[in-house]
């Protein structure tokens, strides 16, 4: 563990306790074992430790929220409660206040970390960030509604929504803060750059589907590409795992192909694009290392072992 990672870990553990997000040594050990500080340190290797402390707080909070919403998805009569939760979450980001702050450790923690993050970001970034959170929650509602109506997702719609369901859009959209990498809007809208961004998001999420399959098979694995391939193509689980890896690897190979072709601008712009591509690569690589070597979040005990690039 590097000094920076240790500092991030100690800070976030103290923050979880201070905000009341965990209340017992067992709860703290549960989240420390998932090693979110490790994920942050290896995914954003070029950012200063103070920014990464904030970023680790925010990401840890989102993982806790994800755990809560996963429980709610399995209770089909709670849709309005989920919608109310999301509304309050967005209200805190938009106004830094909500009637729920005093009653909820989640919203007190959100208000605290968002206050610190706002001090270190521009208004334009904050508005983009809030929209990214909206899109992330919209992905969750899409999945919730499928579950509530007894519908299994089709492959095409799943691939369209997976980046939001897995908050990968949030990871790439946040790079100006989390990695110190800024791409001007006119360059970001350049179709190959947009495709690189989407490929990065999908690679992260498809890899996570493979890593989390064992955990999800114990509950509801409908929103996992392996299960979707089983259901839609009549594959065995091992065949579906192999096919999911093929799809993931094709995405990564196309990312590499596009990355080699986009440095067509002036020297300064190309340098900026190269930094952006490097940051996307760190996200993809960091996710694989953390998921397979560090965290307890994804038990690896299901099905065929296959290579993920």
TrEMBL record:
Keywords: Lyase, Magnesium, Metal-binding. GO terms for molecular function: metal ion binding; terpene synthase activity. SUPFAM superfamilies: Terpenoid synthases (SSF48576). Gene3D superfamilies: Farnesyl Diphosphate Synthase (1.10.600.10). It is an enzyme of class 4 (lyase). Its cofactor is Mg(2+). Its EC number is 4.2.3.-. Belongs to the terpene synthase family. This is Terpene synthase. It comes from Chitinophaga flava. The lineage of its organism: Bacteria, Pseudomonadati, Bacteroidota, Chitinophagia, Chitinophagales.
């Amino acid at each position: 563990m590097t000094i920076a990672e240790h500092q991030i870990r100690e800070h976030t553990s103290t923050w979880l306790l201070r905000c009341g997000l965990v209340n017992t040594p067992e709860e703290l050990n549960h989240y420390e074992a998932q090693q979110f500080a490790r994920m942050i340190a290896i995914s954003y290797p070029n950012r200063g430790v103070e920014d990464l402390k904030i970023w680790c707080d925010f990401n840890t909070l989102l993982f806790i929220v994800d755990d809560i919403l996963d429980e709610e998805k399995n209770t089909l009569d709670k849709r309005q409660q989920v919608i109310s939760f999301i509304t309050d979450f967005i209200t805190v980001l938009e106004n830094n206040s909500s009637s729920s702050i005093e009653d909820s450790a989640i919203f007190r923690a959100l208000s605290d970390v968002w206050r610190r993050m706002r001090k270190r970001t521009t208004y334009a970034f904050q508005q983009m960030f809030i929209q990214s959170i909206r899109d992330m929650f919209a992905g969750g509602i899409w999945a919730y509604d499928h579950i509530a109506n007894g519908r299994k997702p089709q492959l095409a719609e799943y691939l369209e929504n997976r980046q939001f369901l897995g908050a990968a859009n949030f990871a790439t959209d946040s790079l100006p803060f989390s990695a110190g990498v800024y791409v001007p809007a006119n360059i970001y809208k350049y179709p190959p750059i947009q495709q690189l961004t989407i490929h990065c998001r999908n690679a992260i999420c498809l890899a996570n589907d493979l890593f989390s399959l064992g955990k999800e098979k114990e509950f509801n694995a409908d929103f996992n590409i392996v299960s979707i391939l089983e259901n839609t193509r009549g594959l065995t689980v091992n065949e579906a795992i192999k096919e999911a890896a093929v799809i993931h690897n094709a995405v990564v190979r196309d990312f590499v192909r596009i990355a080699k072709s986009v440095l067509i601008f002036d020297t300064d712009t190309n340098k900026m694009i190269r930094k952006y591509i490097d940051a996307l690569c760190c996200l993809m690589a960091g996710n694989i290392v953390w998921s397979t070597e560090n965290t307890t979040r994804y038990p690896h005990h299901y099905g065929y072992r296959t290579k993920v690039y």
